[in-house]
């Protein structure tokens, strides 16, 4: 069974979010869009919060966030307890976010990554599994920092 995906963006990430949403749906994923819903200027923390809270309450949901650089979304999402958001740029960082960090949200910068690269990076993340082992020790230390 494919995981559910919660997505969100600000105005800078809106166009890429829309393309990725359509592509994910074509791949058979259940996608919930938490906004924004236009290219009109808005604030990324509002949408990072909505997606992060959804992911935090449902272990079967992962999140994908888009803004201009991905940085703001990543910072904001990581403020929500239980969220391990990772900024990704390519297949390697997408795969590593899952395999090494057990990320449950990925963030992409629409002004620094194109649609083709975004698809590859997201696919790498979605098809990877947390490797555990030495990485488990490190993820547990991150979780302790949340307390």
What does this structure look like?
- The protein is of the alpha/beta class and 147 residues long.
- It has a single domain, classed as Sugar-phosphate isomerase, RpiB/LacA/LacB (Ribose 5-phosphate Isomerase B, Chain: A, 3-Layer(aba) Sandwich).
- The chain is built from six helices and five strands.
- The chain has a five-stranded parallel β-sheet with strand order 2-1-3-5-4, sandwiched between helices.
- Helix 4 runs parallel beside helix 5.
- The mean pLDDT is 95.
Question: Structural class, please?
Answer: alpha/beta
Major beta sheet, strand line-up: 2-1-3-5-4
First-residue to last-residue Cα separation: 32 Å
Structure annotation, total helices = 6
Q: Can you count the beta strands?
A: 5
Radius of gyration: 14 Å
What portion of residues is helical?
40-55%
Average pLDDT across residues?
A: 95
- By CATH reckoning, the class would read Alpha Beta
CATH topology: Ribose 5-phosphate Isomerase B, Chain: A
Count of discrete domains: 1
Sheet with the most strands, sense and barrel status: 5 strands, parallel
Core attributes:
147 residues, five-stranded parallel β-sheet, single chain, alpha/beta, 16% strand, 5 strands
